[in-house]
Amino acid sequence: MKKIIFTLTLIMMMAFSGLCFASDGSDLNKEQKIAETFMGVFTKEQAPEYAVVSKDFSDNLKKSVSERTYKKLPAEVKEKFGNVKDVNFRAFEKFEQEDRVTYLATFDKQPVAAIIFVFDKNQKLVNYVFTPIQQASK
After folding, report:
1. Would you say 71 and 44 are in contact if contact means Cβ atoms under 8 Å apart?
2. 81 with 98: CB under 8 angstroms?
3. For residue 104, what are the contacts with CB-CB under 8 A and spacing of at least 6?
4. Residue 129: CB partners within 8 Å, gap ≥ 6?
5. How far is it, in rounded angstroms, from Cα 126 to Cα 37?
6. What's the CA gap between 122 and 53, in Å, rounded?
7. Sheet of 84-94, strand order
8. Strands 113-120 and 125-132: what pairing?
9. CA gap 114, 133 in Å, rounded
10. Considering the domain 22-132 in this protein, what is its CATH number?
């Protein structure tokens, strides 16, 4: 009898703990892939085509980031920040209506910059921003 109770208790504990695991992994994976494809415009020799990148844009972002704007982006990033040296994933934030994926990048002219991607609940890219990070002087 003790073995049966122990076995049932063990099964119930395993079933309950399975419910407690986070299920955001697939969201993060998809959003990271979209962000990394977008960052290819300034990290790769041959930038991804606008049609490939824009398929994951929200309707509003498609209006504000046209193909012409997209083609100017590498020159703008290079002018403001310099050549990209390294890009690393830093954070995934999940909110009720949106998700944020943050990368930290190092450039020639700017030692550290945050690249933040905002996604809607349908995993469409809503906005992106390049933010220089000033390091505290010692």
Report:
1. no
2. no
3. 87, 88, 90, 112, 113, 114, 115, 133
4. 114, 115, 116
5. 15
6. 16
7. 84-94, 98-107, 113-120, 125-132
8. antiparallel
9. 7
10. 3.10.450.590
Structure pTM? 0.78
What does the pLDDT look like over 16-50, one tens digit per residue? 666 555 555 687 889 999 999 999 888 887 788 89
Per-residue confidence in pLDDT tens, the chain, 138 aa: 778 887 878 777 777 666 555 555 687 889 999 999 999 888 887 788 899 999 999 999 999 999 999 989 888 988 999 999 999 999 999 988 999 999 999 999 888 999 999 999 999 999 999 999 887 666
Beta bridge partners of 98: 120
State both tokens at 61: 């972002």
Return the bridge partners of 89, or none. 103
Q: What angle do CA 24, 124, 121 make, to 5 degrees?
A: 50
Under 8 Å between Cβ of 42 and 77:
yes
CA dihedral 69, 74, 75, 81 (to 10 degrees): 120
Please report, for the chain, the start and end positions of each structural domain, with discontinuous segments joined by +: 22-132
Q: Which two tokens stand for residue 89?
A: 């994933």
Residue indicated by tokens 């100017």: 72
